[in-house]
Amino acid sequence: MRPFRYERADEVSAAVTTLVREPEAAYLAGGTNLVDLMRLEVMTPEVLIDVRRLTSDRIEELPDGGLRIGAAVTGSDLAADLRVRRRYPVLSQALLSGASGQLRNLATTGGNLLQRTRCPYFQNVTTPCNKRAPGSGCSALEGYQRDMAILGASPACVATHPSDMAVALAALDAVVTVAGPDAERRIPLTELHRLPDTTPERDTVLERGELITGVELPPPHGAARSRYRKVRDRASYAFALVSVAVALEVADGSVRDVRIALGGVAHKPWRAATAEAVLRGAPATRESFMDAAAAELSAARPLPGNAFKVPLARNTMVSTLLELLEEAR
Amino acid sequence: MSDVTARPRAVGLPMDRIDGEQKVTGTATYAYEWPLDQPVYLFPLQSTIAVGRITGVDGALAEAEPGVLAVLSHLNAPTLTRPDDPELAVLQSDEVAWRGQFIGAVVAESLETARRAAGLVRVDYESRPPDVMLRADRDDLYSPVHAAAFGTGGGELQDGSPADSVLGDVETALAASPTMVDATYSTPMYHNNPMEPHTAVVTWSDGELVVRCSSQGVTMSRALISGVLGLEPARVRVVSPHVGGAFGSKVYPHSYAVLAAMAARIVRRPVKFTLTRQQMFALVGYRPASIQRIRLAAGRDGRLTAIAHDVIEQTAKAKGYAEQVGVCSRMMYAAPHRRTTHRLAPLDVPVPTIMRAPGEAQGMYALESALDEMAIACGLDPVEFRIRNEPEVHPESGLPFSSCHLTECLREGARRAGWDRRDPAPRSRREGRWLVGTGVACSTYPSPRYPGNAATIRIGPDGRYTVRIAAADMGTGTWTALTQIAADALSVPVGQVEMRIGDSALPAASVAGFSAGINSWGTAIWEAADRLRARLRAEHDGIAPPEGLEVTAELPGGNPEAERYAMHSFGAQFAEVRIDEDTGEVRVARLLGMFDVGRVINPKTARSQLIGGMTQGMSMALFEHSVLDPRFGHVVNHDFAQYHIASHADVHAVEAHWLDQPDPFTNPMGAKGLGEVGIVGTAAAIANAVHHATGVRIRELPITLDKLVS
């Protein structure tokens, strides 16, 4: 770990100004990922700007029936919130399936969205990695591929985004509110994270100095039931090989509305828009679900070491949809 | 020696750990926590190439950092007197033999400074492509000639046994057999991963070296450390009262202690050094990967006629290590024709070491999987098939077993597991989306007694006893169990006995390993107690004299009965697994073990050992797997987020039971080893249950969902 300076700003604008001014600065919230990466010298900020007390740690009702989640709300608080559990069970389930109780007590909503990939080559400074050291090469492309992407990857980077929470938020059409040097802006969650393309060092579309201040959830969709299903290498405390966040609304035997997002398969939470389009208005049957999953995964380009993720993602999507269908009856 | 049954009192009682309160209140002092006056901190440099040569070291930037006291490398390290052991001979040459090897160190006033400065040292290399992949078709496999660099024993395998064994004519028997199994099983590298990282806290004073570390055997640690540093053993003291887990990795590799001792001698200050989790994956050993071909032949009567077990295992080019993977096939089942072989693949990898049930853990996965395949091929129940093929005597040596109640374990275990309700057809049981299956496998592990033990018992004028022996408690409860043994041997309540262990200044003791601890140390304590009682009676009318009385028993040899009997613990394990048909996720709903481990000294700590072993066996079966990168030569998944050990959520019902039949020949207590037998067979029981649930036979551990999803 390299020496660093610690600063605490009194207001958001001051924090943003400081970050823009300092050439090597980073925001610090829960620190559950950043501090690990600093120990490993994967990230080497010279200044840490503590923003934990700057943003809200409250969950508030919005006039339209949605919720506004302050960026400093912890994973534990968000998962336990009664409104979240009742109206957005998929979000609570996703949070509880990630990390550990201790980590969730510390980790914040904003930080969760901005956590870095757990690609083992990214986290090891002695191996090449385009995300950590642009131009050095991608070690995973010919290396250990179990946790790597099957959708939307590039020859420069095949890493996956590790967040469970973000997958649920992607399915829920959440919007991220951001404060920046010039103005505030609102970014749909599905557009916050990037695909790697030729610049995998950039995880998100955030510009330098921009700070996440909160996440807004639209009102829950009608009678939709939602669920988060995470498949991993052990029953707890492991990142998703594949996860699925699903909200399903069925009327008269047909799919009225459906939201599907996948985790563990791409550089970003993967909203399965193709599958959704196939399903909307289609009969709510196993066959439709299979067709939808197949359509979504036709774009999959697995590596030899993660080809299993294609049938795994398909099966997990179908079985989760079937479970929700079963409960709706 | 008298028999324990004459005076059992504490032995057999579920005593709480005597160090339990200290541990739960945080007052048990582990090595790194030892308070020192003005210590300095060491952070090591590790090679970032797997094989080649160091061409330059530039420590100028590091040395310029405030608080840095020294930058060590092979260029300035003191010359060691035993450069023949490439693992212990740290910083003695410019050669790099594996990635992550120690190539230097920074010593500084704070850990943070040392770690920061270590990142500033520039090292240049001349690198060659590494060769780290174990394959059966390699053309450089060799028969191990001498693995004695590990320990002092001779022999070709690490336990002292020969590399190969032949009886009868396996090939002819296989050709003539109506039923045959020919299958190849593989196991990956596993890392021991104790909770407490390997640590050395070193002080030099007046030419004497004190090493506080986490060790499975302070007597042997002292011998190795003093040897490599060229010191009289009497001038080295190794102290290790509490050990936060070890699983074998704290027996041999002491390179970190040597490095810390070097640094302490140079900076003339006490040095603290503990490895990070990531460093442990390159520096303190691991269970080597194996490829095992098993061939079995059986007659129409369901009796085995041939057993062949051919093992290929990984070892380090830097230092040969040959594990006894196939020895279980020399003794488990009867067959007139039999053969075992061991061949090593020399790779540019870190040096392997002992890991819980070295050899048997991997070997019994393969053998007991093959037995299951053969039982099915013969149309026999796997429990009955095993009983039918149990040997009368050790099939190779012809020696009778000192005790063997394997059939009772199988029958009683089957009864408790509800085995009679089992439909043998694969995929015959389904509960919702779960496929459910059950499987059985046997467990075994030798029960040796080690030479080189001594125990001293002193009775004070107050009638209280102090027992001294340099034994080790790895967190398993040894301290408590030895106290119970001493109390019974002395015929006094446990409260009158104080047990001192974990210090090389105490009478010599063999290591905590090979399930030999209680057997070896307990026997020495028993003998000392007998002698003390005899002298008290003969010289003092049985009453402690005012000046006290002290007796030492030295047992230089092992168990003389080992010439006449084969001594093993046994067990039968039953697993119930559930597999999500959509995702291939495997959950172990129940594990039940029935064990033959002789007399149990302390049921509480014994159960903990056995269910711990079974849980580790489940972890070996389903999760753990060190992934070597063939280009870089390092373990890719080198932390607890990526190297998956069973989490609490993975562990459901785990039951350990035992027969409690004392062994007449192992030791005066009638105990057999139980530290390792619990992990042996678990993986096969689970793999067999997975086959029963799904119809899919997985012959490559771990059984991860990618092998089952479709």
From TrEMBL, chain A:
InterPro entries according to UniProt: CO_DH_flav_C, CO_DH_flav_C_dom_sf, Diverse_Substr_Oxidored, FAD-bd_PCMH, FAD-bd_PCMH-like_sf, FAD-bd_PCMH_sub1, FAD-bd_PCMH_sub2, Mopterin_DH_FAD-bd
Record keywords, A-Z: Oxidoreductase
Cited SMART domains: CO_deh_flav_C
Pfam families with a match to the protein in the record: CO_deh_flav_C, FAD_binding_5
Domain FAD-binding PCMH-type residue range list: 1-222
Any one GO MF annotation of this record: FAD binding
Top-level taxon in the UniProt lineage: Bacteria
Listed name of the protein: Xanthine dehydrogenase family protein subunit M
Origin species: Streptomyces malaysiensis subsp. samsunensis
Lineage, top ranks: Bacteria, Bacillati, Actinomycetota, Actinomycetes, Kitasatosporales
UniProtKB/TrEMBL annotation, chain B:
Coiled coil stretches, renumbered: none
Keyword Oxidoreductase: yes
GO molecular function terms noted in the UniProt entry: iron ion binding; oxidoreductase activity
This protein's UniProt keywords: Molybdenum, Oxidoreductase
InterPro entries (UniProt xref): Ald_Oxase/Xan_DH_a/b, Ald_Oxase/Xan_DH_a/b_sf, Ald_Oxase/xanthine_DH-like, AldOxase/xan_DH_MoCoBD1, AldOxase/xan_DH_MoCoBD2, AldOxase/xan_DH_Mopterin-bd_sf
Pfam families: Ald_Xan_dh_C, MoCoBD_1, MoCoBD_2
Positions of the Aldehyde oxidase/xanthine dehydrogenase a/b hammerhead domain: 25-129
Name of the protein in its database record: Xanthine dehydrogenase family protein molybdopterin-binding subunit
